[in-house]
Amino acid sequence: MSQDKLERLRRILSEAKEARSEKVKAPSPGQSQCVFVHRFPRSRFYGNYPLTIPDRAAELLNAFFRCPPPSQLAFLDLETTGLSAGTGNYVFLAGIGRYVPEGFAITQVLLSDVSNERHFLQELLSLLAGADGLVTYNGRVFDWPLLETRLRLNRMPEPEMSFHVDLLYPARRLFSGSFRSCSLQHIEYYVLNAMREDDIPSHLIPAMFWQYQRTRDVAALAPVLEHNKRDVLALASFLSALACMAENPQAITQASVLLGLGRAACDSGNPERGLPLVSQAIEKGIPEPHLSRALRHLSRSLKRAGLFHLALQLWESHVHPVCLIEMAKYFEHTLCDIESALYCTELCIRCFGKDVDGTLTRRRLRLLKKLARSSQLCSS
Q1: Is the pLDDT of residue 347 over 50?
Q2: What average pLDDT score do residues 274-293 get?
Q3: Would you tell me how many other CB atoms lie within 10 Å of the CB of residue 333?
């Protein structure tokens, strides 16, 4: 066995000793929920990344991903009786992770009796109290809307969150060009280097809950509880991974990941951080159509923000059809410099020769007409 594997095995064993789990409320007949608490020290890793985030890296999270300070965040993962957002779909298990002074804590709330859902939701809301932001994975589309539906049906107030950080979006931005799927399990395996053993498939979870409703045997739900706990750990570890990437982008070897990080910084209002990363990624080599799509997206973002000097810097740095076309638009519509716009258009046609729909040809003819009219006005 290699030295690296031995070190990792020793770390996993030490983490298992340090992690403490306790069931603080045991279910009893007629009780609406039971609560499980798991505490992890500040030194705990999940995969290759720590669960807690250093202060310097936490500041960069906001610069790159518009993420508030970690101390204000609550990590949320729900297990439900189905995949729809309809009124017949129950939330039966909620895992909430919070940063605490000694490290990281996960509290799991299990719905013991469907008829007392209101008490279960009250317990869940009490755990979210004090958090200013929420961290989920695909939570904008599924978890949070479903929780809002259950609260409305029980005529309960919805918690107000200033931020909702859905980690699915940065995962797609950074890794969609590298992996066939950006599911949380793929991110765990390929990015965090964390492997789940004997993990229960998600499609079996609803059936296990309904079986529990018939037998009242909480031990039968142990795989579901472990699955949910690992989901919350993966959320915290992935956020820590994003912070490490933002703090040390030089360590990123994949051009597509570097490009995604640069785009994220530009979209978060920090183009001075993002544009150098984009340039480095392009130098490493980005295949089409990802490069064209990224350049269009960055150009649009910079123009909307009114940062034309940075947009021009981006276009002048790269000889690419998208950059030449964007410069032609800028010279024609912003600076009213028809000659420069025509030069960029003709250069694009001459160097790349791609004018499938005739757009460049029409632009060239229009610019020639404008140039002829301006010459006639000057001569008269």
Answers
A1: yes
A2: 87
A3: 10
CA dihedral 14, 16, 22, 23 (to 10 degrees): 180
The stretches of the chain forming alpha helices (DSSP H) are: 3-18, 55-65, 117-128, 144-153, 168-175, 184-187, 205-215, 222-247, 255-267, 271-284, 290-304, 308-317, 321-329, 338-352, 359-379
Tens of pLDDT, residue by residue over 236-250, are 999 999 999 999 999
Look up residue 94 and give its amino acid. A
Residues of the chain with CATH 3.30.420.10: 3-247
CATH 1.25.40 domain range(s) in the chain: 288-379
**Phi first, then psi: what are they for 213, rounded to 5°?**
-60, -30
Q: Which two tokens stand for residue 355?
A: 């004018």
Give the number of C-alpha atoms closer than 13 A to the C-alpha of residue 206, restricted to the C-beta side.
10
DSSP annotation of 84: S
| Fold (CATH) for 288-379 | 1.25.40
Architecture of domain 3-247 in this structure: 2-Layer Sandwich (3.30)
DSSP-derived secondary structure letter, 330: I
